[in-house]
Amino acid sequence: MYNDLVSIIIPMYNRRHLIGETLSSISKQSYENWECIIVDDHSDDGSYEYVKELISQDNRFSIQKRPENRKKGANACRNYGFDLSKGVLINWFDSDDIMDSRFLEEKVREITKAGFDAVISKTAMFKEDPTIISWKEKRTNVTKNCLEDFLELKVAWYLPDVLWKREFLNDKDLFNEDLMAGQDRDFHSRMLLHEPKLMVLDEYLTYCRKHDGNLTAKLDDIKNKALKISHMNSVISLVDKIDAADRLSKRIRLGLFKAMIKYLPYTLENKSDFNTLRSLLKRLSFPNLFVMLGWIKFYISYISIKLTGRGSKLLR
């Protein structure tokens, strides 16, 4: 019978109104050998005090504050939680999402079967009521060219979906604490560089809440340029890692070129940001018709936005 300790690690910032439902879903897990470490990113809405009282009757839960000497942000909280954790298995989770009651049991059973480094379940989206699903992620899959397919969004999974073996994670650089956005994708892409043995469990076990405070929603907000620039920087860091591993194929170059050229409008207020984006696109370029046409569109759009304030649609 499998009975490995699972460490569930949750970063939290100003989630008093949502995290109670998240923690309730954890307490109802059919698999009972777990610890849940909540790392508070110095919330100012009473979240820390609220959670401390909420978990006082179950010693499997603990709450810590992010140390002052670590950078603010969810990634620092995730790394700190990992440092504190004791589990043989690791599952990061988010403070506004909900676990199916079988979330741990199903994945722990599979990860013990055939020496997998990680088991991936699937995510369904909801807005207010988790019993009413608004959308399901259908790209969660493992392929022969998983890194390339993941970067091209042909396959996709979310941070809470993956149950990891600690022994795989131990010698890796985990979450990049400098990033404000693109955190999950950066982490998973870098783990894929190490070619983990993965399996996908065909079960929707994470219910992801879509709301205005969600970072993905903010990233989709055209007005939130700081997040876009941070995301661009995460791609630069990722390209460095892929290049160092000698995996920067033409396919990866083209996929990232197509994605990053769309970030031009967010860089035009700051010359340094614009030059950074242009340097990244140059690095991703190679003799290719789409790349050539992309550069033409890039400069036409640049001139149009500067003169008229319009022209970003040309980059789509």
Tell me what you see in this structure:
Strands 1, 2, 3, 4, 5, 6, 7, 8 and 9 form a 9-stranded mixed sheet that branches. The chain is globular, with a radius of gyration of 20 Å. The chain starts with 5 loop residues before the first strand and ends in an 8-residue tail after the last helix. The chain is built from 12 helices and 9 strands. With 316 residues, the chain is of the alpha/beta class. It is 40% helix and 16% strand.
What distinguishing features does this structure have?
316 residues; alpha/beta; 9-stranded mixed beta sheet; 9 strands; 40% helix; globular
The tally of beta strands, per DSSP, is 9
Biggest sheet, in brief? Answer: 9 strands, mixed
Any idea what the radius of gyration is?
20 Å
- Helical fraction equals 40-55%
Average predicted confidence as pLDDT: 91
Shape: globular
Determine the N-to-C terminus distance: 52 Å
Number of helices: 12
Class inferred from helices and paired strands: alpha/beta
Order of helices and strands: EHEHEHEEHEEHEHHEHHHHH
Beta fraction: 15-25%
Poorly predicted runs are: 217-222
Q: List the quaternary state of the chains.
A: single chain
